[in-house]
Structure formats: C-alpha cells, structure tokens
Design a protein that fits this description.
Layout: E1 17-25, H1 36-47, E2 53-62, H2 73-83, E3 89-92, H3 95-98, H4 102-114, E4 118-121, E5 126-127, H5 133-164, E6 177-180, E7 183-186, H6 188-202, H7 207-217, H8 226-233, E8 242-244, E9 247-249, E10 257-259, E11 267-269, H9 279-293, E12 309-311, E13 318-322, E14 327-331, H10 332-336, E15 346-347, H11 348-386, H12 389-413, H13 419-443, H14 447-464, H15 473-479, E16 480-487, E17 490-495, E18 499-504
Helix pairs in contact: 1-12, 4-5, 6-9, 7-8, 11-14, 12-13
C-alpha cells in the first residue's frame, strides 16, 4: 500500500491581513478608558508586533444601548465594508460588546464567515475562523443575551411598581384629549365628535357606517376606519379611568409588544382624569359590542402576511378571513363594498405556494439577475456621493481627525509624548470626531447605501440557501417588504433592496 504524507497548508508570508476592530464605547469623551482614542491605542498596541496584519479602521458605537444591531450605525458600516471586501479580520473585546442577543450575533458571524472574514473575541478567546467556534459562540452569546434581558427585567419591575402604587403616567393621548403638563385635558372640539360616535352607536348605527359619515364630514386628516371606531368605543379613558398594561413586552428576544390577553396582570385606576362619556352610555355600548362579537373569530397568532398585502387596484390593505375549511385574504374596500373594488379574495396557501416558487427561482438564478443591478447601483451611488462637496469635506475632516488620533496614539505608545498632552488632545479630537460624524449622518441621505446593503444581503441569502419545498416564514420576514395583489391571478413581491418580482396564482 502506498505511503501517504499530509503536507499542511501554509499561509503566504507576504499575505497582509486587513484587520478592523469593533467596540461600543462611552458617549462621554471624558471617559478615557472607553474613548475612541483609547480603543485605537489598545488595538494599535495589540497589532504593532505583527508582521502580516494592518489596522484598517475602528468602528465604535456610542453607549451600551439596545438589544438589536439595527440601531448601531457603526456596526452596520462595518458590515457594509466587509461586504465590499475591505476587511479580512475583526477584533472585539467580548461577545457582549459585539452583540447583545444570540440571533444578531450568530447572524452576523455566519454572514462574515461566508465572506471569508473571521472574528476574534478576546475575553472568551473564541476565533470564528476555527471550525468548532460557532457552538462556543452560541453559548457565550446566550450569556450576553441573558445579561441584557436581566437589565430589561429590572426596568420592567420599576414600571410595574409605579403601576401598582398608581404613580405611573401613560404618555398615550386618546382622540378627544390633549396631554398638558403630564395630565389628560379635554379638547372641547374633539370631545363633541367622541360623544357623537357613542350616540350613533347606541342608537343602532354600525361602526362601518359611523366611519363613512365621519369621512364624509371631513373630520381630521386621517381616514376613519372601523377599527378606529372600535378603539374609541372600548377605551375606558372616555369615562375618566385608566387600565394599565393592556399590552406588554415579551420576555424573550427579539422583544415584541403584544396585546395582553390575560397573560400579565392589569391595573385599573379609577378617576385619573375628567371623563367625556357618562358611564351608563359607555356600558351600553360595551353590551352592544359584546352581543355583536359573539359570532366573530378571534385570531390569536399573527400571520406573517399581516399588514403586508396591499391591493394594487385601490391601495387598501388586505384583511384575513377564516372560512370553515380554509383561510383567505380579502381587500378591505372590496369586503365593505364589492362595487368599490373588484379584486376578490385569495387563499392563504396560494400566497405561500407563490413565495416558495419565487425563492426557488432566485436560488437558481438570483445572482445572475441581482449582481448587474448591484453593480449599476454602486456606480450611480459613487457618482452621486463624489459630486456632493459638503459630504466630501466632512469625510475628509473625519479622515484627518482619525489620522491625528492614530499619530498621537503611536507617539504615546512609544513613550515620546507627554501623558497630559496626549490626554488633552485626544479628548479634543474625540469631541471633534463625534461632531463631524453627527454632521455626516445628518447630511447623508443613506437611501442608496441602505439599498446597496439590502441587495448584498439578498444575494448572500440565496447564495447560501438550498431549494425549499415548504413556506419558510423566517426567510419571508427577512426579504419581503410588501405583496401587491395586481389581480386575482397575479401578485408582486416587493423585496428588500427596492426590487420586485411578479408571480402568478395557480389555481
């Protein structure tokens, strides 16, 4: 039998690893331990003896806020630069500073791994470039998530305590009131409309008819709908009372605000403000509502299609209807009057089948379709940005501030700079950098940047996916922004990145 010798792979000695660092830092430039300059100094020191690593950039978001990556602009900028091929490796102090929930952490790391970019978490000594690292990352991310959830629970305990002792102030202002110095005060003009709504309803006029009358009278700019009338008729604030915790935040990430159907305690406080409606009239309306709602079907689980289906004929949203043997979606205007819109109902499973078909087409041909669009948009975006002199000046200023910070940091690390001088000037550079970045974000219309990132994300999703046979709710939520019903046999999926694809409903 032939002897086999394994020759281990070697990295080229001249290969330069473009290294970046991510941190969430204090918003106070006085906090030198967490300042931008301190972070640069730390990572410069860390890499100074390396023969094949070059420090590309420092990405730092302010504060320790949030459980979601969506609000961290520097994190999103870093991900965008990674997609553009500017970074080979990312350094982070710990997983808790990188992401505060498991979903965001794993989603980012998996995307970076497909791009050939590794992340090193110093505190946990985890390198995602290693094959076995993802399991460890999931464990430590869960620890970071639990820490964040613990903070959230402590905040909720404070809110619940104020609810229990009657000191909690709700900021919601129902129609008919104004919020003045922390108190609800009656708005005389709007209060008369509220009284008219209750008067009509208890006299036998339905909610749809009430909404139609108010729209014909031109009351307020927004369109009156059946749901708006229902909210007014069931709101105890109109009799001067307040029910607290009608909704609550879920205990697991991602946090969602959901209607309280008895899962949590509620607190009913009498006489919190001046009433508009007499209690006898309110109770009468409540009885009528209860009698009419007996035959209605309650939907306890929100569909992934909720608020996403729009009528291409009249612009109304579609509402869900539960039939005896199937679920369907119907245009609200058509449901109220078939004469106003002629597009009829479409079954829930027909939307799902159409989405599966679209996904498989994009999985097979998506890159060929999307890549030219991405290149064209990148070219247009660069032309537009290069022609904006104000943005160019701000970018130049930020670059110069960073260069000065790098220089001061290097001199300080070599011991050739006075400590007091270094601290004073780096604090001043931190302030200038913060101001310049805020001005840049305020003046930068990032619609093209966001669209580019979404297109890159879309391409990445289908490059990494396999054909599907069943409806994938997670993928639907990731990529579909809207479904437009063009006819009873044709729908259009509006995807992230501002693109759309038409699919036929096959019956």
């Amino acid at each position: 039998m032939a002897e086999i010798t394994i020759i281990p792979a070697k990295k080229r000695s001249d290969e330069v690893v473009r290294t970046a660092a991510y941190a969430r830092v204090s918003s106070s430039s006085e906090d030198q331990l967490n300042s931008f300059a301190a972070q640069i100094r730390y990572y410069t020191e860390l890499l100074k003896d390396s023969t094949n690593a070059v420090f590309v950039d420092m990405y730092a978001d302010e504060g320790i806020s949030g459980t979601s990556a969506a609000k961290r602009t520097e994190f999103q900028r870093m991900m965008s630069d990674c997609r553009k091929g500017k970074i080979d490796r990312i350094l982070a102090k710990s997983i808790s500073r990188f992401a505060r929930n498991t979903k965001d952490s794993l989603e980012a790391v998996r995307e970076l791994k497909t791009l050939g970019i590794s992340v090193y978490f110093e505190k946990e000594n985890i390198d995602t470039g290693e094959i076995s690292s993802e399991m460890m990352l999931a464990i430590y991310s869960q620890f970071a998530q639990e820490e964040s959830m613990s903070i959230s629970r402590n905040c909720r305990m404070g809110v619940h305590k104020r609810m229990m002792d009657g000191t909690y102030k709700t900021a919601s202002t129902p129609f008919g009131y104004d919020y003045v110095n922390g108190e609800l005060k009656i708005n005389p003009e709007k209060a008369e409309i509220v009284k008219q709504i209750f008067s009509w309803y208890v006299s036998g006029i339905g909610m749809n008819e009430i909404a139609t009358r108010l729209n014909q009278l031109g009351i307020r700019k927004e369109i009156w709908r059946r749901g708006t009338i229902h909210c007014i008729l069931t709101n105890e604030k109109y009799i001067g009372d307040t029910r607290l915790q009608k909704s609550f935040m879920t205990d697991v990430l991602p946090f969602r605000n959901v209607k309280n159907r008895g899962e949590k305690e509620q607190y009913y406080v009498n006489g919190t403000h001046e009433p508009i409606i007499e209690k006898s009239i309110f109770d009468n309306a409540k009885k009528i509502l209860a009698a009419r709602d007996k035959s209605s079907v309650t939907i306890t689980e929100r569909s992934p299609f909720h608020s996403k289906i729009v009528c291409g004929n009249c612009g109304s949203t579609f509402r869900r209807k539960d039939r005896k043997t199937y679920v369907c979606w119907v245009c609200r205007k058509h449901d109220e009057s078939a004469d106003d819109c002629n597009i009829r109902q479409i079954r829930d499973d027909e939307f799902r089948i159409a989405f599966v078909r679209l996904c498989n087409k994009l999985q097979a041909h998506g890159k060929a379709i999307l890549a030219p669009m991405l290149r064209q948009l990148e070219t247009l975006s660069e032309r537009e940005k290069s022609g904006n002199s104000q943005l160019a000046e701000l970018r130049k200023e930020i670059s110069e501030i960073k260069q000065q910070t790098y220089l001061l940091t290097m001199l300080n690390s070599q011991g050739t700079l006075d400590g007091a001088y270094f601290k004073k000037h780096t604090q001043e550079l931190d302030r200038k950098l913060m101001t310049a970045q805020k001005q840049l974000h305020a003046n930068l219309d990032d619609k093209d940047g966001k669209r580019l990132d979404e297109l890159r994300k879309l391409i990445g999703i289908f490059e990494r996916s396999e054909p599907i046979t069943n409806f994938d709710e997670i993928k639907f939520g990731q990529i579909v922004e809207k479904i437009t019903v063009l006819s009873e046999t044709e729908i259009r999926f509006g995807l992230i990145g501002g693109i759309g694809f038409t699919e036929r409903i096959e019956r």
